[in-house]
Write the structure tokens for this entry.
Amino acid sequence: MSTEAVVRAVLGAVSDHRAMRVLASLTSYNRVQGTIGLVDAAKHVQEVLLQEAGDSLEVELIKFGGTNVPEWMSAPTGWAIHEASVKVEGGTELTLEAHPTLAAAHTPPSGGEVSGEPLIVDREWWRPESYANAKGKVVVSPGNPYIVYRLASEAGAVAVALYGESAPPDAVPYKGLFLSRNEAANSTVPAVSIPRSLLGPLREGRRLTVRVDSDVRRDPGFPIVVAWIGDRDGKGPAAVAHICHPTPGANDNGSGSAAIAEAAIALSKLIDRGALAQPSSTIRFIWIPEYTGSSVAFTKTFKGLITQVLNFDMVGVEPGNGNGPLRVVASSLSAIGEADAALAEVTNLVSEALGFEGHRLVAYDGGSDHDVATALGMPSAMLNGWPDVNYHTDLDDLDRVSRRMLRLSASVAAASVYALASSPPDPRAFRSQLLSTIASRHLLSGDEVAARLARSLMARAMGLQESSGPPEGWPPKVDVTVKSRPPMIEGLRAIARKSLDAALRVAGMMEAAGQQAYTVYLLEGVFLTTPDRTLGEVASLLAAEYGTAAVSVERLTELFSLLADIKMVELAER
């Protein structure tokens, strides 16, 4: 059966009404990692699938403890939040009941009310000297929550208040400390999230009073829900969505979770009635806690069984009004394959059928579970709406999500994973399309060097014919290679657990490098390193993907030297 015919069948079976009902239920659960609310949400998904899906779909809920997470990933403490409040002297008072993201995830309790003058650290939050006057005060910062929390705590702050620089003024952001159980048990400083609108009175010096009633406890288990069609132990593709994040979390990522639930239900019913043939490979739908769950699922629970990954994260909001396009995010250059081709082709077909023109193909971008799959060498593409004006805030509620977007996303999930399991597309055409798209965008922005790098070195890396030679001076002469490294570097928190000083230096480097720095340097820059590829060649491929302004070979070399100093990677000379 052609992909077009599969798409037509799926569009006739997907119910956006049912998907919206699943999403509405998920928003009622506080799905922070390490909480019982996340486990309950996973149980709810399992129950929906058992009640609604066809007989061809099997469902199981699996739980794992934090000690099962691979050493290159970290698991947060078990945690429960009961009450929280924030009060500005002479003015606003915020409560957990009105703002469910008010308490920073995994914060220890305050032991009653704590109060102090604000110390606003809005610049150079990675420098210890910025906290020199923090003793007895409430540190207020937009910086990396884990780093800010550690520096503020060590400097004697009585509390930490985190805000988002890009969030709407009155939105309370979701900020997570992701403390380990040991870190949380030995921490006494409470952390909360506040809206940007409070910065005015805080800059005037008004005191901030914080109260947090929380429990740091043994984790209740981290849930993985898996639903499959075919042989339980068979190999095949997987559609995945992270089910975590605090209530309401409608778009992030209730939408992805609801979309793949509807995809599983619709696909199983089509197969049951013979409208679609039983696929030759096993199809899996997997709901996981972000990063924590995918690291366990891909290395242990389903080790060796998943051939490609399709990740669905934030797929429910229509583009416009500050919200970006629905992006088909390609795999890393290290792993582009059939997953990319299937997701791109099906997204085009479904979008055309629904009259949707707001989708766009982009180079690899990090920040979700496709990172983990890519780190492990699995081709992994993502469907994702970005940017999102209410990202990680308490305003990410049900009223933002479009039934059309849920129908589109669920249909894409069902048809693309079915195509991969039945007759995977040839990825060569997709590679050519991606190369042409990236090179054209470079030319439109006036970056002719990046366009030539794409048509030469990037084309070679993807197994395509080179249409030009590399520009003069590329690749830069840096003959250092990465002999060994972890599958991925989770971010500043992972580096800080090796060396806080190194993490602070990396944070400063990333802030200076610009918006995509974490993707460019700490994700794709790591994925592209091999014992046979110099850092100069890695820098050239990064410039081909993201543009010459996004990449500095000196910064890349400094970063890997730093990581080598703390023994996260091992370098060699070629």
Notes: The mean pLDDT is 97. Residues 250-272 form the longest helix (23 residues). DSSP finds 18 helices and 18 strands in the chain. The radius of gyration is 23 Å.
